[in-house]
Design goal:
The protein has 193 residues and is mainly alpha-helical. Among the domains are: 38 residues, no CATH class; 93 residues, no CATH class. 64% of the residues lie in helices and 4% in strands. The protein contains seven helices and two strands. The chain has a two-stranded antiparallel ribbon. α3 packs across α4 and α4 crosses α5. The longest helix has 33 residues. The chain is flat and about 95 Å long. The termini are far apart. The mean pLDDT is 77.
Length: 193
């Protein structure tokens, strides 16, 4: 930002260190369209409290509850619930008026709740949600999932830094050797008197 000159703002692109004017909304929007990288779904899932992640977690718990209630495996439960989710979507669209503006959060939540009850999707209270989460964790522990994940504690940082230093010194010695070889080659090429 250059506040001393008309309050101008610029975006500095890290790859080429050039400044791009971003003083107006339109200019900023064009910059973001041109230079933005976007976000992968797995990285979006790491963002706490995003709507997509909340929906995914709710559906995952519904699948587990449905499998438990109907004594079926997760694949069958997922397939059954896919049909139920489509019913809920159709119901929500049917409740929406053609001329209606975007509904408020409360109106939308009420419609989703009404349609979910009608569709036969399992309704999960807080107690049941916690028991399902515990079951999922126990199942993962039995399978051994998550064991391979290493935390920072698992790494010996001294060894890592020693390896880095070794590599640097190897590179330096390689460069020295290259320079010495080039000098020797030049000496052989230059005629001596």
């Amino acid at each position: 930002m250059r506040t001393e000159k008309n309050g101008e703002s610029f975006y500095i692109l890290p790859t080429n260190c050039r400044a791009y004017y971003a003083g107006t909304f339109e200019a900023s929007y064009q910059l973001m369209k041109q230079f933005s990288l976007g976000i992968a779904k797995k990285n979006l899932a790491k963002v706490p409290n995003n709507k997509r992640q909340k929906m995914k977690n709710a559906l995952r718990l519904s699948v587990y509850a449905h499998a438990e209630d109907n004594d079926m495996d997760l694949k069958e439960a997922r397939k059954d619930l896919k049909e139920e989710v489509n019913k809920v979507k159709i119901c929500i669209d049917a409740l929406r008026d053609a001329n209606e503006e975007k509904p408020t959060k409360e109106e939308h939540r009420e419609r989703v709740l009404t349609c979910t009850k009608q569709s036969g999707m399992p309704m999960i209270d807080e107690e049941r949600r916690e028991s399902i989460k515990e079951n999922i964790q126990e199942t993962r522990q039995e399978r051994g999932e998550g064991k391979n994940k290493k935390s920072l504690k698992d790494f010996d940082m001294k060894k890592i830094f020693e390896k880095i230093k070794e590599r640097r010194s190897e590179r330096k010695s390689e460069k020295r050797n290259e320079k010495m070889n080039k000098r020797e080659a030049r000496k052989e090429i230059t005629p001596q008197e």
